[in-house]
């Protein structure tokens, strides 16, 4: 799984996007292999991560199983 994180540049910041701390924590759990099996649910926050980019990245890291 760690190889999937090489070269990753991060997410754009959107006016209303996913809560950055929640996404960061989820991605850390995903990298450690301790993320929950179901799809993640993030709060929407001002200046959050771009939702489309986060959804695509998580689907990529989970092998399209989102």
Structure write-up:
- It contains two helices and two strands.
- 36% of the residues lie in helices and 18% in strands.
- By secondary structure, it is α+β, with helices and mostly antiparallel strands.
- The model has no long low-confidence stretch (mean pLDDT 87).
- The protein starts with 12 loop residues before the first strand and ends in a 5-residue tail after the last helix.
- It has a two-stranded antiparallel ribbon with strand order 1-2.
Write out key terms for the chains shown.
single chain, 66 residues, alpha+beta, two-stranded antiparallel sheet, 18% strand
Topology, element by element:
Elements: E1 13-18, H1 20-32, E2 44-49, H2 51-61
Strand content: 15-25%
> Main sheet: which strands, in order across?
1-2
Q: Taking all residues together, what is the mean pLDDT?
A: 87
Helix and strand pattern: EHEH
Give a count of the beta strands, DSSP E runs of length 2 or more: 2
Quick take:
The chain is of the alpha+beta class and 66 residues long. It is built from 2 helices and 2 strands; from the N terminus they run βαβα.
């Amino acid at each position: 799984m760690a190889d999937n994180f090489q070269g990753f540049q991060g997410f754009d910041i959107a006016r209303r996007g996913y809560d950055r701390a929640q996404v960061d924590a989820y991605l850390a759990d995903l990298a450690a292999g301790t993320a929950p099996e179901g799809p993640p649910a993030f709060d929407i926050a001002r200046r959050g991560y771009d939702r489309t980019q986060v959804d695509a990245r998580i689907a990529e890291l989970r092998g399209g199983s989102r």
